[in-house]
Amino acid sequence: MSGSSAVVAFLVAIVTNYVTAEPPGWAENTVVVWAVFGALAVVSLGLFFWERRLAAGAPDGGVRPVPLGRVAAGGHSMNPPAVSARVRGREAELERIGSLVRAPGGGMVVVCGAGGLGKTTLAAEAAAQARAKGRVVVWIRWRDDAEQLGQDLAQAAHILGLPESRLEEARTGRVSLVDAVWEHLAGVKGWLIVVDNVDAPSRVGPGPEPVAAYRGWLRPRGGGVLLVTSRDTSGRTWGPDADLIHLQPLADNAGAAVLLDAAPHAGTGDEAQALAVRLGGLPLGLNAAGAYLSVPTSRHRTFTAYQHALETEFTDLLGAEHPGAAADPEAARRVVRHTWDLSLDQLHRDGYTLARPVLQFLALLEPAPVPRTLITPELVTDATGLPATAATVDAGLAGLHQYGLLHTPGTDSPGSGSPAVGQLQLHPLVREVTAHTLARPEPTTTWLTAIDEHLTRAVNTVAGMPGRAGWPTARLLAPHLPALLDRNTPHNFTTARNTLDALADILRAAGAASEELLLRRHVLDHESTVRGPNHPDTLTSRNNLALALNALGEHRRAVDLHQQVLTDRERTLGPNHPDTLTSRHNLASALHDLGEHRRAVDLHQQVLTDRERTLGPDHPDTLTSRHNLASALHDLGEHRQAADLHQQVLTDRERTLGPDHPHTLGSRNNLANALHDLGEHRQAADLHQQVLTDTERTLGPDHPHTLTSRNNLANALHDLGEHRQAADLHQQVLTDRERVLGPDHPHTLTSRNNLAIVRARLAQAGRRRWWQLRRRGGGA
Question: Is pTM beyond 0.70 here?
Answer without folding.
Answer: yes
